Every structure is written in C-alpha cells, then in structure tokens.
Amino acid sequence: MRRPSAIGIAALCGARYNVGPGVKHKRSQKALPLQKLLYTLRDSVRDLLPIVFVIAFFQFFVLQQPLPNLLDLLVGTLLVVVGLTLFVLGLNMGLFPFGESMAYAFARRGSLPWLLVFAFSLGFGTTVAEPALIAVADEAAKVAATAGIIGNDPQAKDDYAFGLRITVALSVGFAIVLGCYRILRGWPIQRLIFGGYVAVMLMTMLAPAEIIGIAYDSGGVTTSTITVPLVTALGVGLASSIRGRNPFSDGFGLIAFASLTPMIFVMAYGLLI
Asked: Which residues on adjacent β-strands are paired with residue 17?
C-alpha cells in the first residue's frame, strides 16, 4: 500500500510541516567542551550568588550569629556548584538535543499515533522516576496511615504510595499527549489552561479534604529535574518542525499541562480509594 505523501503528521492534524534547510538544529558555532564547561561553571556561580548573599545577610545582620560548621558549609556549597554545572552541561549536551531530534524524527516519519505514544511514554516514564514525586508519595502514605485512611502496615503504605505515583505519571502522560496534539492543531493554550483550572475547582469541591493538599502538591513535584528538560525539548522541537508554528508561542506550555493534570487525577484517585 502506498504511504501517505508529503505532509505526514501535520497533514493529519490540519497543519503544514516543514523539516528542511530552513530549520536549524544546532548552533552555527560550537564552543569547545572545555569552554562550555567553564561558561557553565561561571553561570552556576552567578546563579547561586543571590542565595549566598541572602543567607549571609540574615545570618550575620539579622540573627547576628556565626556560621555553624563553616568547613561543611563550604564543601557543600562547592559540591552544589559542581553538581549544578554538570547537570546543566548534561542537559545542553544530551537531553535537549535528544528531545528535539526525536520530535523532528517523528515529524519526518509522518505517524501521528506513534508520536502520541512516544509523548505519553515520555511523560509517564520521566514522571514515575521523579525523585521529588517518590518523596512526596512516601510522605503522603505515612500521613494517610497516621490519619487512619489506610492501614499502618508497610504493605498498605507502599501500595498507597505506588498508586499515587502511577496516578500522577498517567496524568502527566495524558498531559504531554494533549500538549503535543495542541501544537499540531494550533489550538490556543489559554483556553485549555482555563478549562483545566475550572476542572480543578470542580474536583476540589468533590474530593475528600485529605487528598486536596496532596493533589495540589503533586502538580508541582512532577515538573522537576528529569521531566522538564525532555518535555520542553520535545515541545520546542515539534513546534519548530511544523510550518506556521512558532517555537516560542507554540513550543512551550507542555510543562503547564504537566502541572495541571496531576491535580485532577490525584483528586479523582482520592475519590476512588
């Protein structure tokens, strides 16, 4: 059977796509690895300076106390600078280019179902592994057991935390699918966000009081160190590959969906358990 000609994914969604010479994947000038490392180190130090100044001001001028464990503090600060530098460098060298290249590849392939499957898998896989989500889910299970909502045995707490993580991961997968489809269709993001928050308010009135705070916090912890880089790169890369789409106005916004849908899903989870 003859494959669909020319247009691919964007044609299925009413848009025109263009992956060609006009699309630039990489910067025209590449810095040497050592230069990149030094530039990133400089930026990391600059970004951390305001935090250092705030802590020093309140410690010396408000509390008027010397710094406790000065050596540990200096070593910890150094480790933070090095860790942040390597993390940002890794994002720029690996995760961001990878996410954008995957978006271009799916646009060339012209398969809408595979793009949406990839979007869901990316959202689900990155979220279920989020350290912040794991920590919040475990803490929520302890509080739920103390309040008598679930059993106080380890198995009950593990099941509750795991169910919460899966619920949030499913919601983020759905959010990324919705966000990618919005980019393809060219829908205005503000309408979807407005409708989403209306749904949040309705679910807040229906959900048990014990789950509402957890649901709201779940929306924040999903957009952390693992999810944000890949999801952002996917959105920008997809918008860049569609003619008539602007990477600035259309490519961003996936993180907003990923923060919104967990609140709805977790409150629904609270209604079911």
From this structure: 242
